[in-house]
Each structure stands twice: as C-alpha cells, then as structure tokens.
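INFO batch 0412 | record 1 of 1 | parsing
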Amino acid sequence: MAYTPKTIATDNSVDEYLATLRESQARDSQTLIEMMQQVSGEPPVLWGTIIGFGTFHYKTKSGIEADWPKIAFAPRKGMLSLYVTFEAAQYKKELDAIGKYKIGKGCIYLKNLDNANLPALRALIEKAYQQDI
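INFO prediction complete | emitting tokens
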C-alpha cells in the first residue's frame, strides 16, 4: 500500500487562513510571509496549517517518499513554528543572535517576533532555503 502524506500543498487561500488568526499571529505571519517570499522568490502555499515556500521531494531510509516545503512556518497556539531543512541545533550561534527560541530537530520555535532580531532571522531563513537537500 502506497504511503499518502497527511500534510500536502493545497490551493486554499493564505489570506483567508490569516484572517482566522489572532491579530498578533496574523501580524507575525505576514512578516514571515514577506521575509520568506523575498528569500525564496516563491509564493506562499498552504500545506494544511503550514505556510510554505518552494518544494523539495524526499525519500526516507524506509522508502517513504513525499514533498515538503523548502522553508515554512506555522502559527501555533502561543508560538510560531519555523520548519527548516537542517538540524536546527547546528546553528546555535545564528539562533542565539535571533533572541529567545526553542528548537526541535528541524523546527525553531519563537513565542512571537516582538523581540526577535529580524535581520538575524532572515539570514537563518536564507541558510535554510539555500541548504542542499
């Protein structure tokens, strides 16, 4: 039986999705959309509740294949989840320059962008987009 990924690109409206968010989440999301669109040259695409830019195809060691955005984020309750294509911990110096954050394997969690160093965040997003996958 073929694997069907749960998170796939959709034709749903990013603007309509942003309209469902709290004002602060929508504001931070718009900032990230502008930043990621400038970096990637790609339009934002909804992948469920993830806003992604660009696409790459991957295959796991177990043979599962799927597509995923090259850079993406999701406004979650109480935080922004940034999805990157590398082990986030390897960029501790760059992350520290952004401000307060938490990390997962391929995620960076920010409470909001109010106190974030946006030029440092953009530089990290550029690294993520340029990462060879």
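INFO post-check: The CA atoms of residues 94 and 123 lie 8 Å apart.
INFO record closed
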